[in-house]
Amino acid sequence: MGRLLIFAFAIAAYLLFFATFLYLVAFVGDLPWVPVTVDRGPASPLAVALVVDTVLIALFGIQHSVMARPSFKRHWTRIVGTVAERSAYVVASSLVLVVLVAGWRPIPGELWHIRAPWAEWTMWGFFALGWLVVLVSTFLISHFELLGLSQAWLNLKQREAQAPRFRTPLLYKSVRHPLYAGFIIAFWATPVMTWGHLLLAVGMTLYVVIAIGHEERDLTALFGDEYRDYKRRVGMLVPGVGKTAK
C-alpha cells in the first residue's frame, strides 16, 4: 500500500508539473488562452511591480537551486524518503511557479515591437523552438526519472534503480545544457518585449547562469574526470562557446 501511495503521489506530481508547464508557455508568450500572463494581470505602481516581480523570480530561483543540491537532499530525504524525493521537488517547483504566475505584476512599455509579419513569425518560431528544446532535452536525459515517475515505478515493482551513468545523447553532444538553452530562447524570443517581460527574461537568465555553476560542481563531484573532459570539449549553452580551459 505504501508503494502504491508513493506511485499515486508521483503521478499527481507529474500531472501538476505538466499543467503548470503548459501555463508557463502561455504566460511567457502572452497567449490569449489564459487570464494572466507576463503582460496581462493586476496593475500596480512601477516600484511595487519591480519589487514584487523581483522577489517572485528570486523565490523561483532559490527553491529550484536549494532543493536540487545534494546537501539539501540528504536532509530532505529523511522526511520524504529517497523514492519520493524527486516527486516532492516537482510539486514544490510547480507550486512556486503557480505563486510566480499568480503574483506577477505586468510592467507596461515596450522595448521593441516587431510588426513585419515575416519577422514576427520568425520570432514565434524561435519561441516554439525554445520550448521544444526544453521538452526534448528532458527526454534525452530520462524525462520520467527527472520528474520522479521512474523512481516511484521501480519502487512499486520492487526493483533497484541503476547507478547514474554519464551520457551525452543528441543535443548534449553540442552543448552541455540544452535544457537551459531552450529556456533562454523561449524567454527572450518575443515579437513584443515589454519592460515586464524583459525583467522576467533577465531574471531567469541570471538564474540559469547561477544554476549551471551549482549543477556543474555537482556533476563534477559525481562523474569526476569524465565530466571535466566533457566541459573542455563542449560549449555550455552555445556550441563551441563556454568550454573550460585544459
Plain-language structure description:
The protein is an all-alpha fold and 246 residues long. It has one domain. The protein is 67% helix and 3% strand. The chain contains 10 helices and 2 strands. A two-stranded antiparallel sheet has the order 1-2. Helix 2 (46-68) runs antiparallel to helix 4 (85-103) and helix 5 (117-140) packs antiparallel against helix 8. The protein is globular and about 55 Å long. The chain starts with a helix and ends in a 13-residue tail after the last helix. 26% of the residues are buried. The mean pLDDT is 95.
Please tally the helical runs, counting DSSP H or I stretches of 4 or more residues: 10
Average pLDDT confidence is 95
List unreliable stretches of 5+ residues: none
Instruction: Decide which structural class fits the backbone.
Output: mainly alpha
Series of H and E elements: HHHHEHHHHEHH
Radius of gyration: 19 Å
| First-last Cα distance | 52 Å
* Strand order in the sheet with the most strands: 1-2
| Helix content range | 55-70%
Overall domain count: 1
Q: Major sheet: size, sense and barrel closure?
A: 2 strands, antiparallel
What attributes does this structure have?
246 residues, mainly alpha, two-stranded antiparallel ribbon, 10 helices, 67% helix
Question: Which SSEs are present, and which pair or pack?
Answer:
Blueprint (H helix, E strand, L loop, with lengths): L1 H28 L16 H23 L1 H11 L4 H19 L6 E4 L3 H24 L2 H4 L2 H8 L21 H11 L3 E3 H29 L1 H9 L13
Antiparallel strand pairs: 1-2
